[in-house]
Design a protein that fits this description.
The structure is a single chain. It is built from 17 helices and 18 strands. It is α/β, with parallel strands linked by helices. The chain has 2 domains: 218 residues, Putative sugar-binding, N-terminal domain (Rossmann fold), CATH 3.40.50.10840; 180 residues, Molybdenum Cofactor Biosythetic Enzyme, Chain A (3-Layer(aba) Sandwich). The strands form 2 sheets. A 15-stranded mixed β-sheet has the order 9-10-5-11-4-1-3-2-16-17-18-15-12-14-13, sandwiched between helices. Strands 6-7-8 form a 3-stranded antiparallel β-sheet, with no helix packed on it. Helix 2 links the parallel strand 2 and strand 3.
């Protein structure tokens, strides 16, 4: 096997971190590259390499080229295309890019994320038991989702494998017999995903993987079966190593406008952070004193910056870029960053000249702690739709070893 054991190609930074940290937790050194065109892509020999192509909002042809070029440049024993569990982005184009780069491979697609109540049944993605196309999960997207995954992937041909086969003991044979470039597997539990991974690894065919963090978790368990140190031990070691960063004031930038992300910002403020709510129109207009105001506040206190009011989906990109620009001076000096939303995280980190991150720990589901190797700062990332109102507060409490606002096991499982 090559020195680099595994490559994960992600279309979004927070999703890539969430998928990649599963390998770090299993004891595999895991690095996330923020720029897919980086020269480091050729020489990085981490056990697992996660590359953010930032392609979720790109036109299909551009996304296909990015995935193709990334997969061609990196030699790895296993290749995973990280897929959004809500199936957003140019999914068919990105899978075509994988096939362009690795002809003759079979893509095993399993997009379920059971921990977030996102499951695949009869080839249809479900959210909390409701078919995706009947939910509001794509409300901010330019078009509604397809009624099933095979339709969304057209013109790619798909072999659909139902739960009866996933759980029936003949999954490897079904994968081997597939005559299409993609095998789509139903899954409603982590055990289903584990069965899919073990069947794929046992296949006589060259396999590429496509799925969410649920699939990468199963793959990490299969590829690194040695028992890693416990999560509590790993977090304690991290805190000791990065004590200076943990003890300094944090800068939280909340770019997501989802209700749960806004509630998380309010909860951090209730625990003592300074909350700066900036109207979207002020951000886009580029009012000159915003960056200085944020820097002054962040230098002396925990600070949360969020967008005030609704954001027109058509203006999301401009608002995210403006938010990254006004927080860049403070982010460059901060030793602990909390970033919510993939576009926001990427923009802030790029503005602070962060090229890559070592993925370290997951104090909360979907909350990833990473380190910037160039500066030693800690970066906490989270997708905007994940968690409950206290998720970020609990993550900060875990890092600082202070009382948690609300223990997670006292809450009903959140609806992302």
């Amino acid at each position: 096997m090559p020195a680099r054991q595994l490559l994960v190609i992600a279309d979004d930074l927070t999703g890539g971190a969430d998928a990649g940290v599963r390998f770090a937790r299993a004891g595999m050194p895991t690095r996330l590259l923020i720029d897919s065109r980086s020269a480091d892509l050729d020489g990085d020999l981490a056990g697992a390499l996660v590359v953010d192509t930032d392609s979720r909002q790109l036109p299909p042809d551009a996304a296909r080229r990015l995935v193709r070029d990334t997969a061609r440049r990196v030699s790895a024993g296993h290749v995973v295309k990280k897929v959004d569990s809500l199936l957003r982005g140019p999914l068919a184009a990105e899978l075509l890019g994988l096939l362009d780069a690795l002809p003759g491979t079979l893509i095993v697609l399993a997009p379920a994320l059971p921990a977030a109540s996102r499951t695949t049944v009869d080839g249809v993605q479900h959210v909390d038991g409701t078919p995706l196309h009947r939910t509001a999960a794509w409300a901010a997207e330019p078009r509604p989702p397809a009624p099933d995954i095979a339709t969304q992937l057209a013109p790619l041909r798909v072999t659909q494998i139902g739960l009866h086969c996933v759980r029936g003991g003949r999954l490897t044979a079904a994968i081997d017999a597939a005559t299409t470039p993609i095998v789509l597997c139903d899954a409603t539990t982590d055990a289903d995903l584990a069965a899919i991974v073990y069947a794929g690894l046992a296949s006589r065919r060259p396999i590429c993987w496509a799925g969410s963090a649920g699939l990468t978790s199963a793959l990490a368990a299969a590829l690194a079966p040695a028992e890693p140190s416990g999560a509590a031990d790993a977090l304690a070691e991290l805190i000791g190593t990065y004590r200076d960063a943990v003890d300094r004031p944090y800068l939280a930038v909340v770019g997501s406008a989802t209700p749960v992300a806004l509630a998380q910002a309010e909860e951090l403020a209730a625990r003592g952070a300074q909350l700066l709510s900036i109207p979207a129109e002020d951000l886009v207009a580029g009012h000159g004193d915003l960056a200085a105001r944020i820097s002054r506040t962040a230098a002396v206190a925990d600070t949360v910056v969020r967008v005030d009011g609704g954001v027109d989906p058509a203006a999301t990109g401009r608002v995210a870029a403006a938010l990254a620009a006004v927080t860049a001076p403070a982010a460059t000096r901060a030793r602990l960053l909390l970033l919510t939303g993939g576009s926001t995280a990427r923009g802030v980190l790029t503005g602070a000249d962060v090229a890559s991150l070592w993925l370290l720990a997951e104090p909360e589901p979907g909350v990833v702690v990473s380190a910037d190797p160039a500066t030693g700062r800690l970066v906490v990332t989270k997708a905007g739709s994940f968690g409950d109102p206290h998720t970020l507060g609990r993550a900060v409490a875990a890092l600082r070893r202070t009382p948690s606002p609300v223990p997670r096991d006292t809450l009903k499982e959140p609806t992302p």
